[in-house]
What we know:
This protein has helices at 4-10, 36-50, 75-85, 98-105, 129-143, 162-166, 177-188, 210-216, 230-236, 251-264, 310-320, 342-353, 363-371, 386-394, 399-402, and strands at residues 16-20, 27-28, 31-32, 54-58, 89-91, 112-114, 148-151, 173-175, 197-201, 222-225, 240-241, 267-269, 273-277, 292-295, 298-299, 304-308, 325-329, 357-360, 381-382. The longest helix is centred in the N-terminal third of the chain and has 15 residues, at 36-50. Helices cover 36% and strands 17% of the residues. The strands form five sheets. Strands 5-6-4-1-7-8 form a six-stranded parallel beta sheet, with helices on both faces. Strands 12-10-9-17-18-19 form a six-stranded parallel beta sheet, sandwiched between helices.
Amino acid sequence: xxxxxxxxxxxxxxxRVLVRADLNVPLDGSVITDDGRVRASLPTIKQxxxxxxxxxxxxxLGRPKGKPDPKFxxxxxxxxxxxxxxxxxxxxTEITGQAAQxxxxxxxxxxxxxxxxxxxxxxETSKDEAERTGFAQELAALxxxxxAFVSDGFGVVHRKQASVYDLAxxxxxxxxxxxxxxxxxxxxxxxxxxxxxxxxxxxxKVSDKLGVIENLLAKVDRLLIGxxxxxxxLKAQGHEVGKSLLQEDQLDTxxxxxxEADKRGVELVLPVDVRTAEQFPDFxxxxxxxxxVVPAGGIPAERMGLxxxxxxxxxxxxxxxxxxxxxxxxxxxVFEVAEFAGGTRAVAQALVDSSAFTVVGxxxxxxxxxxxxxxxxxFSHISTGGGASLExxxxxxxxxxxxxxx
Length: 406
């Protein structure tokens, strides 16, 4: 696999380099609420720009369903990227075609441009290889005869999409620093892992993590389950969960996980108490319901669990204390609301206090770290790709990585 270092050694001055980045940031209207992914993209873009490349960044934002949608425009991201780079970033309002080509043709050495949301074109995510290839050819045309492609959006490498997979087959291709770092970290979680190896899983649905749980049961020493998915586990053990989030169709699968964990000697740890309310919080409300802590084994019929409780916080922290490797993916509760953020904060703080190799698996977990004001350098690694991280740990092939290996 050729890397960004190889490309820089070849020389990029005056050449057009297409960079697939992951700039899929959360927005509140037109305001970026977490620019972590933009910041993570800076090193690769900056190195290319400073070496004299004419950098054309490609990215997506949200799920615009294959057509232009102003609320998913990357214009606001171009401004933020420019602020962080300390230089203007040209926001191109097209993706391909004459207008986009003219804008790219006008770039000088060191300039940086950002194409409009690649998912505005339905061919980007098409299941039809011919359609994706056609779109990739149009993107490749922007690079010109001596152009190159750098894959640096780890959050999308698990997708066989035009700007991630098909484009790499058309241009000289290189792995960016972010992709290399992510793959190196995740390989530490799957081979020669220092033990005890503890995984903390949260988030809303068991069904989102079926594959990763199944695969991890053969690899980990302890599995801590929190968040909304914990209530399906508790119900599978015969406990009452009230109005808590429950996936009835996954109960048999979860019972299988519990049996497999017992068979393999994996310590599967569930909440012993939870913070509850009678209704789900309204994020926009000035006041929120006061949480009532109840035993996890008997949530009243009229209440729902919204966070792990204080006893569980201490239990989870204790189970993390002797770990040598920790992977955490998914919040412990509705961390967006202060009253139900305690569990997520406690797990994050336990990782900060740990001497283990600690990996935060992207997505909401990474957002929570930043929202709760915890030091990012307190973790060994914070992933930019939640879905890609999980699929790697499931043992799945990541098309956007394997295509770089030929």
